[in-house]
Amino acid sequence: MQLAAAGCVLMGFILLISGVQERANIICALKGSSVDLPCSAQRPTSTRKWYTVLCNESKPVLNEISADGNRLTYNMSAESNFILTIKDLTESDENNYCCGSITENPGSCCDNRTELHVADLQVKVIPNTEGQTATLICSTSCPLTENPAVYIWYKNREFLYQDWSPWYQQLVSSEEAVTYSCAIKGYEDLRAPQVSVDSVSPTFFNVTYAKGRMCSSQHTSEPCSITYPTEVHVQLTPENNAVTLTCNTSYPMADPHTAYRWYWNRELYSDCESQHMTVLNPCSTTLSCAVKGHEDLRSDEVCLDKSTCWRVNYVSRRICALEGSSVNISSEYSHPHDHKPKLWYKIKRSGEEEAAEALIKNASRRVEYDDNMTDCHILRIHNLTKNDSAEYTFTLQERDDEGWKQSDIPGVTLAVTGVKVQFSPSAVVKEYQRVTLTCSTSCPLTDNTTFIWFFNSRPLTLKENQNKHLVLDPVSSQNAGNYSCAVKSHNNSSSDEETLTVQGLTSIAILNAMKLTLLFLILLALLLLYLKKRKKRPLTSAAELSDKVQTGQMDQLYESFPLTTTNPAAKREAAEQQEDIM
């Protein structure tokens, strides 16, 4: 296989050769978090050590890991199975790890290795087929082994809400001044970089990232703005014994360094990131493509040789449906032979674990198949519950020497949501404030969804501009009560009632008066207590002072001071008497 200036050139038959797959335990952990890697050695020995391993065809290359007691630690207790703990994960920790003894066969390290992938959190923007809106999804670059229980959303850096679903509850239109971010509960300090949706049109949408993986692909660590197409498709150009494939988009990519992803027989072909690919000696296979960094928007599959090709596409890759409603999941397919068995599978994932359940039409008719149209098959599920949230894949099966053979392609993600009432700023407000009630869902329903509101179990007549949001501005005491909401035509999916409490200004004034009265009574009680204590202290009365003067008694404080008169005549008489004596 060789690369050409115009794209990739490859031999069709080379990609059909599948090598022996080595066994590996795959772990995906969030960047900045900690991870424990258990030792996979068959038996414990005193010489066990941890290594990073490079597996190649000749001989594995092992590099011993030295624990530093801080970021890299070993747990060597018998119960721990010699766990390697790595803290504060970075991209450089992404590697193959193995645990064992250097005296053992080094090749066993590759057979029992642990592949560690480090995921970064990213808000992905996906355009909707209806209207000029987009959907936000809190996404990781690989499926986390520790399945997130709760996702937290932020708007303009402020907490917005949390929910089990990674989908943003609202449909987003152009809002240049509004930024969104998300986090996983328990790792709130590891938020995704902020994203703003600048514009959405039928052919493209523009997204600005504050930083992160998307800007790194643009060779910058600063905020970057990227324009993505809303549609991707593969164009085939036959040339003698070759076929040239071009990954075309609804809007030309402005960056000449834009990379593409190619999927051969539904598997990622990582050796080609060019927009063009030439296949020599085309054979029975299917191909699709996507823009790198935006793999959620993948083209339909195309066949190189339609006479022997299996092809499966889906009308919609993501569906948000209401609890209690019905949903149609549609696939379009082609197969060289007619009347092959067709079956739908429900796939539930938990980290790296997944369980596939074949969906069989049952007596209750909750699950139905519709195969009345040519090359189209519909799975219909009635009375949806939240347990129906899963991935659904359509398979074409044929008999071979080893049993039934089936196609395998990423399927349709179905999210089933209920409705609930949320208050902003809170469920307890003061009279004449503004309060907004939202009929909230775990994933965004279609643009034309109509919501209805109930106040104390009675339907409300809304203003023209109010639908999903009920705005009370200003709110009054008459608005206090129980509110619920539902989706029109699905009244059986009404939300639970939530209570709005409105504190009237009169009651607030009374409450403040009561507080002032209580404060006054406390101060009065303190004053009376002070006067009572002062009364008990011994005091000298005026009568007692008069008696002391009449009897010639004086306070000891003044006994040593002679009494003098201030009469001038008396002074002269006393002076004259003194002179006569002398």
Approximate strand percentage: 35-45%
Quaternary structure of the protein: single chain
- Total count of helical runs of at least 4 residues: 5
Mean pLDDT: 79
- What's the end-to-end separation, in Å? 150 Å
What would you report as the Rg, rounded to the nearest angstrom?
Answer: 40 Å
Counting DSSP E segments of at least 2 residues, the number of strands comes to 44
Helix content: 10-25%
Question: What do these coordinates show?
Answer:
The protein has 582 residues and is mainly beta. It contains five helices and 44 strands. The strands form eleven sheets. Strands 28, 30, 31, 34, 35 and 36 form a six-stranded mixed sheet that branches. A hairpin with a 2-residue loop joins strand 34 (390-400) and strand 35.
How is the secondary structure organized here?
Elements: E1 2-4, E2 7-11, E3 24-30, E4 35-37, E5 49-54, E6 61-64, E7 72-75, E8 83-86, E9 95-100, H1 107-111, E10 113-119, E11 121-127, E12 134-140, E13 151-155, E14 158-163, E15 180-184, E16 195-200, E17 204-209, H2 213-216, E18 224-229, E19 232-239, E20 242-249, E21 260-264, E22 267-269, E23 276-280, E24 286-291, E25 294-298, E26 302-303, E27 311-314, E28 318-322, E29 327-334, E30 342-350, E31 353-359, E32 367-370, E33 376-381, E34 390-400, E35 403-406, E36 412-417, E37 420-424, E38 428-430, E39 435-440, E40 451-455, E41 458-459, E42 469-472, E43 481-487, E44 498-503, H3 505-535, H4 542-550, H5 568-581
Parallel strand pairs: 2-23, 3-10, 28-36, 38-44
Antiparallel strand pairs: 1-2, 4-8, 5-6, 5-9, 7-8, 9-10, 11-12, 13-14, 13-15, 16-17, 17-18, 19-20, 20-23, 21-22, 21-24, 24-25, 24-26, 27-29, 29-33, 30-31, 30-34, 32-33, 34-35, 34-36, 37-39, 39-42, 40-41, 40-43, 43-44
